[in-house]
Design goal:
The strands form 5 sheets. Strands 4-3-16-15-14-13-12 form a 7-stranded antiparallel sheet, sandwiched between helices. It has a 3-stranded antiparallel sheet with strand order 7-11-8. Strands 1-2 form a two-stranded antiparallel sheet. Helices cover 35% and strands 18% of the residues. The two termini are 14 Å apart. The chain is of the alpha+beta class. The longest helix has 22 residues. The protein folds into 2 domains: 56 residues, no CATH class; 303 residues, Beta-lactamase (3-Layer(aba) Sandwich), CATH 3.40.710. The chain is built from 12 helices and 16 strands.
Length: 396
């Protein structure tokens, strides 16, 4: 009877909680007694939810709008992970949850983490001018913080390179700096006068890491992030030492575009030699290790990490979500941060609901796919109280 009373109390909390936008009661330890067997409700719900997710992604794959991998976790534990479709469509090589995808702009969170690590080591301050580390850079009033929050006003390096670089040759981060020094393109606005999401900012942050440490950016990230966290399948792709562009990226899963109904492999590209704004390859399993490390403060001390999740720009009615250090901040969800990425046949999604300790990681290798609203529905799971109540009813 005591156990039953505990269950009733928990169910009351869940059902009453459905009137709120945020369900905060999840660390419960209630048990259900049925034929002298005790069931933990959270484990039962997670098992049910894992089956639901498996079926949902199976259907998305059948509809042709999902070719990739997925991992959903709660409270530091994997609830569901799965792989659907092909790593190579021609060879029919199937994906698995250890397949490494190009993360595109989801790479930016690792660049921000690298900068924050250097901050904790006392090697930089966020309000340092970029010229403290790259003296030749012609925009002296731009700070590290401006770069992190996309408030530098700097123009797009990709447009500059398309205009002034031989696109048949790889370009790297130092080459990008040289182009800005030589051509001095007009900024969009003065530093800190506005927000403009721009890959230039994170390419320059990778260069700051290199100038401070004397290591290539990919080496630093491997040494300070991937290896300590056991992210053994993760790496930063670059074209260092290459003089020509390969037909295809020789590592990881290939990206695809559709030509009509036919998936066509996307080749390598000269801009893949620039690191920081993109270029990280990783798996859903490795990325979940990274997410857990952020929760636990094992990579960056929690007080220092808070800066990454604070709005970097003043509130503005035309801006849907704010931006911190390498993370977008969801305006209509408490304590939720995310980043999406699109690049050369890859679409990636990384969402962390820190209020309810939920993480959703989606990696795909085709340029078209399901709407992001499908993934937001999973992380929000607004019907959870009803689902738990129905589960209770089904076993009594």
């Amino acid at each position: 009877m005591i156990v039953f009373a505990v269950v009733v109390i928990i169910l009351t909390i869940f059902v009453s909680g459905k009137e709120s936008n945020h369900i905060t009661v999840h660390n419960y330890t209630g048990y259900i007694a049925d034929s002298n067997i005790l069931y933990r409700m959270d484990e039962m719900y997670q098992e049910e939810y894992a089956g639901y997710l498996a079926n949902r992604f199976k259907q998305l794959n059948k509809r042709g709008v999902f070719n990739g991998t997925v991992l959903y976790g709660e409270h530091g534990q994997v609830v569901y992970k799965g792989a659907f479709g092909y790593a190579d469509f021609r060879k029919k090589d199937t994906l698995n949850t250890q397949s490494a995808f190009q993360l595109a702009s989801v790479s930016k969170m690792f660049t921000a983490a690298a900068i924050m690590i250097l901050k904790t080591e006392g090697k930089l301050d966020y309000d340092d001018s970029i010229t403290k580390f790259i003296p030749e850079f012609p925009y002296a009033t731009v700070t590290i913080r401006n770069l992190l929050t996309h408030r530098s006003g700097l123009s797009r390096y990709m447009s500059l390179a398309d205009k002034h670089w031989d696109i048949n040759k790889p370009i790297n981060n130092e080459d990008v700096i040289d182009l800005f020094v030589k051509y001095k393109p007009d900024p969009y606005f003065k530093p800190d006068d506005g927000f403009h999401y721009c890959n230039t900012n994170y390419a320059l942050l990778a260069s700051v890491v290199e100038r401070i440490t004397g290591l290539h950016f990919d080496e630093f990230v491997k040494l300070k992030i991937f290896e300590p966290l056991g992210m053994d399948s993760s790496f930063v792709y670059n074209l260092r030492g290459d003089s020509v562009i390969s037909y295809a990226v020789p590592v990881g899963v290939s990206g695809y575009r559709y030509r009509g109904w036919k998936p066509v492999k996307v080749g390598d590209y000269y801009l893949n030699g620039v690191m920081g704004d993109k270029g990280v390859y990783s798996t859903v399993e490795d990325l979940f290790k990274f997410s857990c490390a952020l929760d636990n403060g094992t990579l960056i001390p929690l007080p220092e990490l808070e800066a990454a999740f604070k709005p970097g720009s003043p509130s503005y009615y035309r801006r849907k979500d704010n931006y911190g250090f390498g993370w977008r901040i969801k305006e209509d969800m408490d304590s939720t941060v995310y980043h999406f990425g699109w690049w050369k046949g890859f679409r990636t999604y990384f969402v962390r609901d820190m209020q309810n300790q939920r993480t959703l990681i989606i990696l795909t290798n085709t340029h078209k796919g399901a709407s992001s609203s499908v993934y937001w529905d999973i992380i929000k799971d607004e019907d959870r109280p009803d689902k738990v109540y129905n589960l209770y009813q089904s076993i009594n």
